[in-house]
């Protein structure tokens, strides 16, 4: 086990993890997950918000086991490798706000950084603008980091139980998923909401999705896999360690899509995507900036929350609440284009993030 732990911390280890995720995501799509969305942290958290009734967009409601597995897998990995360290207290409400706007930006584009790469690997040319926006948003964030931006020092929690809240919440959601399955032909169980059509109704078998989520949670926790961190380190420190994993993720996803017949190049009529390129760019600019200011992409935030990081759990909670806000107030996009209030929300989010970047500085 010690050798496995050390291997995943190396460049070869991060490449291995990227290859594994890059293969598993298209396979999940082939087994039933939405097209070009084998794994999308933002979209899956949005579906969880819908399953809980935080929004009533009937086509995106499902308690995604992959997300639950991410947190629980990271938690089990942290325990096994003695890296479970309950901590928090670093500007939690600012992190919550960043999580809300990160989700709004992601839903204007229709995808998180993982799905940006998966859309490209599936042939969706619109994702090029999303990727450019993500990189630009991260670059802006690095300017704030160089100028002294900080949310303050994270404090060690007084009790090890303090880091259990978010993993236990995910465990509770998993139990709900098992005891409250979707009644045949109905959109609601006893407590949870379920989609009858649309992306929320498209999902791989529950057990397979959960196992994949747990496996990725373990591997990503050990390797520190993070898409935002990959571009941040490349731009800020000229270090390519994390980026090598992200590159492997994209290459593996592209090859897997080609093998499975899931590569369909073009811009028009791509699945769960729109062609309003300015807002594809600006939506991911907002998301990339928020991820950088919060210190991790949405996947990394889930993995850190499994390690006991309450600040990461607050950010993840902000994203789930942000999904409810986005769909309840007409901010989220659809294949027809951005929502009626999506443009205004994106501009407001950019302004808020810039203000946070300018004002949250070390004295």
UniProtKB/TrEMBL annotation:
Keywords: Membrane, Transmembrane, Transmembrane helix. The keyword Oxidoreductase does not apply. One of its GO terms (cellular component) is plasma membrane. It holds the Pfam family Sulf_transp. The keyword Membrane applies. The chain crosses the membrane at residues 7-28, 62-81, 93-116, 128-149, 161-179, 199-220, 241-259, 279-298, 310-330, 342-360. NCBIfam families: seleno_YedE. This is Uncharacterized protein. It comes from Thermodesulfovibrio yellowstonii (strain ATCC 51303 / DSM 11347 / YP87).
